[in-house]
Write a structure and sequence with these properties.
Shape: elongated
Number of helices: 4
Structural class: alpha+beta
Radius of gyration: 16 Å
Low-confidence stretches: none
Helix content: 40-55%
Number of strands: 3
CATH topology: Beta Polymerase, domain 2
Largest sheet: 3 strands, mixed
CATH superfamily: Beta Polymerase, domain 2
Distance between the termini: 34 Å
Number of domains: 1
CATH architecture: 2-Layer Sandwich
Strand content: 15-25%
Order of helices and strands: HEHEHEH
């Protein structure tokens, strides 16, 4: 029974690692596509802080975007993420009391591990 339990634990860990690798790859893809359109975006939340888990979503912080693209961003992110859940936060809509924490934890997608 102990052997079976450790095997299940290892399988769950492998799945979590694979989901994280997929999330990193797709977050990079989304950030690159947005950057190519003139949008400045970084990753925040659990993927940025190393706490990404089986039920986590991918959080993006849009720091700057051309006004005409603001409502196209989420569709593009959705296309890039291929079904992974996500959230987009716009810096200009963040309450002042949350601004410092969000900008401190924000990571360029290329630096995700």
């Amino acid at each position: 029974m102990a052997h079976s339990h450790s095997r299940l634990k290892r399988l769950a860990s492998d799945r979590a690692s694979e989901r994280r690798r997929l999330a990193v790859a797709r977050a990079r893809l989304a950030c690159k596509a947005l950057s190519d359109m003139g949008v400045t975006v970084r990753v925040i939340g659990s993927l940025a802080t190393g706490r990404f888990g089986p039920d986590s979503d991918i959080d993006f912080l849009v720091e700057h975007c051309p006004r005409h693209l603001k409502y196209a961003i989420e569709g593009l992110v959705e296309d890039c993420l291929g079904g992974l859940p996500f959230d987009v936060v716009y810096l200009d809509e963040v309450p002042a009391h949350r601004l410092e924490r969000l900008t401190r934890e924000a990571v360029d997608a290329g630096h995700l591990r």
